[in-house]
Design brief:
By secondary structure, the chain is an alpha+beta fold. It has 13 helices and 20 strands. The strands form four sheets. Strands 1, 2, 3, 4, 5, 17, 18, 19 and 20 form a nine-stranded mixed beta sheet that branches. Helix 2 packs across helix 11. The protein is globular.
Length: 405
């Protein structure tokens, strides 16, 4: 079914997906719960070639700007002389809204979840005759394992990588716990030893962090405390280079703090940093204008609020984010006290989707590009109704992305 934003939708092979999920359930009984019923949409999104080209161009422009010494001096501030890891950070997520005006970068995440679950979805559809061209790298399990080995080698050279620990708070209670289990399964199949742990299970010693009696080589960091301020033993081990941590606070500061979007949309500032005109023009077209919110401008912000989307500068997963036209005065009064950015509205794409033979209704979607060292590995859409992605809407969840031909 077509939409008015250059995208379209088509049904997937649901039985093939169900077979893949059943195989996972057999290997890991009880991991997928009723809460995951809307993890995967029955729909694939077909995107236009110009949208794909613009997303690639924006990602390349961001990478070029972030590499500038002046950018690093600006965003790192007092930390510019601190520990700089050689590792780059796994699973960057560049999130876009696609509409008739183009592809718009909404935010950058440096610990983007969902890549393994999305890869499982992609793999389940290899034999399906879906329209369009797949945009996933070949053999994603192997690609992901090679990425973790690359992170280790960047930091440790030819030393053998003995183990990886996937770390999150109370991991079994996390919505994405099935992804941790899947990551462990695939990485172990690639010859790596993998554990899943709460940060409290890691013990600090003079030579590094230990899980039980094993010294930890590499941590796949899924914590949402991006600075690690709540986990001083992890922070100390990372800063003293006693463990390879990926993704890490350095990458978050360079890329994902939402205040950086205010810099990426300031052409004069970028020009002063030494950015080339092509990158500046790409970012002006592809990143919605973003500004810091301050109480001094409260009256003007309230007047213009319907034109903006308000986000906490260090937030994640849409938490604490508000469309300006939905704001109450009480919430707005809290926003203008600081800690928020406002991004000019760039509406998400919409496609019409039928759910359980009901009449088709409009679903919004965004597109996440999973990126490592500037290279796109996989695209996935997230279907939803309401203000933000939620994995609660029947018919919503992860949706495959295909290039329309």
């Amino acid at each position: 079914m077509s939409s008015n934003n250059g995208s379209a939708s088509c049904p997937i092979n649901r039985p093939a997906l169900q077979q893949a999920l059943q195989h996972f359930n057999t290997a890991h009984p009880g991991v997928l719960q009723q809460a995951h019923d809307n993890l995967y949409s029955n729909t694939a999104v077909l995107i236009a070639p110009q949208h794909l080209a613009q997303m690639h161009a924006v990602i390349a422009a961001v990478e070029q700007v972030v590499a500038l010494p002046a950018w690093q001096q600006k965003v790192l501030g007092e930390d510019v002389a601190g520990f700089v890891p050689a590792s780059k950070g796994v699973f960057f997520g560049y999130d876009f809204h696609l509409n008739a005006e183009g592809a718009h970068l909404i935010e950058i995440n440096t610990n983007a979840g969902g890549a393994f679950l999305s890869a499982l979805f992609e793999h389940s559809q290899h034999a399906a005759a879906l329209p369009g061209q797949s945009l996933a790298a070949d053999n994603l399990p192997q690609t992901f394992a090679a990425m973790f080995r690359s992170e280790w080698q960047l930091q440790r050279g030819d030393a053998p990588l003995r183990n990886i620990v996937i770390v999150d708070e109370a991991p079994q209670s996390q919505y994405f716990y099935p992804e941790f289990v899947l990551a462990r399964q695939w990485l172990e199949a690639a010859g790596l030893q993998v554990f899943i742990a709460d940060p409290g299970e890691l013990r600090a010693a003079a030579d590094g962090l230990y899980l039980g009696e094993s010294r930890v080589d590499l941590i796949y960091n899924r914590l949402t405390d991006f600075s690690l301020a709540q986990f001083p033993h992890l922070l100390a081990a990372y800063q003293q280079d006693l463990v390879v941590l990926t993704p890490h606070p350095h990458a978050y500061t360079l890329y994902a703090d939402k205040r950086n979007l205010t810099l990426l949309t300031d052409a004069a500032l970028l020009r002063g940093m030494g950015a080339d005109e092509s990158s500046i023009a790409t970012l002006q077209r592809g990143v919605p204008l973003t500004r810091l919110v301050a109480a001094a401008d409260e009256a003007q912000w309230w007047k213009e609020r319907k034109e903006w989307f308000f986000k906490p500068a260090t937030g994640y997963g849409g938490k604490g984010s508000y469309r300006g036209d939905k704001l109450t005065q009480r919430v707005f009064a809290e926003i203008v006290q600081g800690g928020y950015v406002a991004q000019r509205k760039a509406m998400p794409g919409e496609v019409m989707v039928s759910v359980q033979d009901a009449e088709a209704s409009a679903f919004k979607f965004d597109v996440r590009c999973y990126v490592y060292q500037g290279q796109v590995q996989l695209l996935i859409a997230r279907m939803y109704q309401g203000q933000t992605t939620n994995f609660r809407t029947p018919g919503g969840g992860f949706a495959l992305v295909r290039l329309a031909q």
